[in-house]
Design a protein that fits this description.
Blueprint: H1 7-24, H2 28-33, E1 71-77, E2 80-85, H3 90-100, E3 105-106, E4 109-111, E5 114-116, E6 122-123, E7 125-128, H4 133-145, E8 152-154, E9 158-162, E10 167-171, E11 181-197, E12 200-202, E13 226-228, E14 235-239, E15 253-255, E16 258-273
Antiparallel strand pairs: 1-2, 2-14, 3-7, 4-5, 6-10, 7-9, 8-16, 9-16, 10-15, 11-14, 11-16, 12-13, 12-15
Keywords: Dioxygenase, Iron, Membrane, Metal-binding, Oxidoreductase, Transmembrane, Transmembrane helix
Cofactor: L-ascorbate
Domain Prolyl 4-hydroxylase alpha subunit: 79-271
Length: 278
Amino acid sequence: MHPPPSFPFAVLQYAFLALIAYVLAGAPLLAGWMGAGTEDAQHRVGAAGAQVDGLVVPDANLTCDAHAFRGVHVLSREPLVVYIEGFLSDEEATAVVELSTPLFQPSTIWAAGEERLDTAVRQSSKAPVPRAHAVQCIEARARAFQGWRPFVFVEKLWAQRYGPGGHYTYHYDWASASATHGRVSSFMVWLGGECTGGGTHFPRLRRPAGDEWCRFVDCGDEREGVVFKPARGNAVFWENLRADGSGYAESWHAGLPVLSGEKIGLNIWSWFQDGYVP
């Protein structure tokens, strides 16, 4: 019989096994350390709900024209990933671009609590979208798509513009998470896709079988996972967090480099703040 390991050696064994489990779980804290957080300075939300100025509160008197999607396709159920044809009309996409264009500025990243420029990680321009009537209707549509979940609020919308070489390396949309608060879901909406390259890559999602998906997914791309092709007015919706507050490793994604032309996108993020009443 071998003698039991000494105390320091046993501790090292357990620490090593814990590190392996953490990496296999997606290393969520490491993602934030690597500059993967997408929260811009103007709409950061405090974990305790103290800074709620980044959330939009629906207007009780808001009225919007009826809007019908051209198609809704479920790519994954765990996590939930849905492709939406015609999330925006052409008129809405044009309106958001026109509202955003004067406000574009170089995109930044957040790392270790500091905002900075780093084009190796993120090369694009961003713009806060003014809350015109059309924009408020888009916010309301995003909430309705998710079933008006209690204590879930849409964050102020941001447009993103990518020229040749523009990209955003792999990251999670959630920088931190818990059962009481966090960025529970994301929409990536394309306002303009007159470009080559520039797909949105989810390397940990399983590529769907069947040629039907090739209208939306780059079936010729040899990368692992799924690459969604930019298509004006269309959107991808995905859940970032489970009900217990843990993050989905499959939500790891990147904006691939634009080879030519210009890609313009709209981020719609939803924040869960348990018990918060505006």
